[in-house]
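Justification of computing resources. Each target in the renewal requires a structure prediction run like the one illustrated here; the chain below, 504 residues long, is used simply to show the kind of job we budget for.
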Amino acid sequence: MKTRLNDNSRRLRIGLLLSTIFLTWAATETEQASAQAVPAAPAPVAAAGRMNVLFIMADDYRLELGALGSPALTPNLDRLAARGISFTRAYCQQALCNPSRSSMLTGLRPDTLGLWCNSIHFRDLKPDVVTLPEQFKKYGYTTRDVGKIFHNWHTKVHGDSQSWSATEYLHYANHGDDKPMVEGKVPASLATAPKCERVDVPDNAYYDGRVADEAVRVLESLAGQPFFLAVGFWKPHAPFNAPSPYWELYDRARLPKAIVEPPINGPEIALHPGSEIRGTPPNQLNFTPEQVAEIRHGYFANITYMDRQVGKLLAALDATGLAASTLVVFVSDHGYHIGEHGLWGKTSTYELDARVPLIIAPPRNPTPGARSDTLVELVDLYPTLCELCGIPKPQGLEGLSLRQVLGSPMAEIRQGAFTQTPRPQYFDRTEKKVPEAMGYAVRTERARYIEWREWGTDRILARELYVHKDDPGEMKNVIDDPRFQGEVDEAAKLIQKQFPLKKP
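Resulting structure tokens:
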């Protein structure tokens, strides 16, 4: 087993080195190109020469990209970023799988859907809503789903045949059931921390390896027809069980350590028990520093494992010749905490949960390798993809097209990006089945402002302000500091406009 592990690790390291050489060259080319005049945004594609869409989604993946300075080893996503545009300030509408994915794929905010939990399917609330893939299907595209795109707990019951041209693959499962499937005996795990598993097995022993293999097969079968292929990876969501070679790529001692204290002057309502990782009382876990370090190591190993599966897709896209006619999108449903603020998992309104990676790579990208700091939201993807592919947009979409930003990365399309979350963390598991409060957050150019409102009355229970220039980690709530009254006033107006307070 040791020889195989070392061989696998050596191959991965060689791949990472080659990717680094490529990206260094690409960065030089991008710098030279940026000195030229800013080109126009890509034109919509006419029906006679339709652009395909490869829509890739990760699960629980916060903004950790090597190309943006993260210690995460992501050579394949970095390669995609080198030919596309990376959005450094992209925000989900709610940091929970079902509400975020439902919002993104319908182009409607959680409040419009009336959906803030994992236990209700969006079609139970709005049966006639037209999803993003469904809109492409209506206009002649073959639409396929491989892996987790819509939330996995519910699509087993009624899937979404309205959205797809064929049956989904591995779209329904439980993360906890993602155990290694191999011939013979599974090697012993080298991990000791909760939620961690470290065994030397092939990539396809786990869900994401099999998703990548099937997605490549489907991609090859779609040549010659306009397609919208959605590929949903299950990682880096817990458990932290990437095959052992991916763990070997990291020196745990060199990974950044989490500041586990909650924000100074932060309200209690902003926090949560992290039951997804820690369990529920009275059996809730408290982690030792060594366990915290191992869990964080596992999260980064999961990222690189997932990145490798993305690489298989991109390689197949090139090998089939489809890269020249395929728009590639990579996005996560929301971010994640691995000990920061003392939080584990998602469901906060803080930056680490709200901010996600977003890369859009058109086949004829006028700004390859560009980065945009403009504020964008995941509801923007629906109108953007429709416009780029020449597909009519349904009425009522709540996002804004990013086509202008693709041509001019510094263009601004909005003053703030909004994220919300209810309290209790999983209110649908309580006896009342409704929230007690809702937190509404807006990220502006300079700050994050949050209002916690009592459910049903909109009485403001608490407020938070984090000024990112001084406090990028959001460690001190300065809502009462008169020096920042301008930021408070600006952000409060944006919140009020988007989520008006109920009149008494």
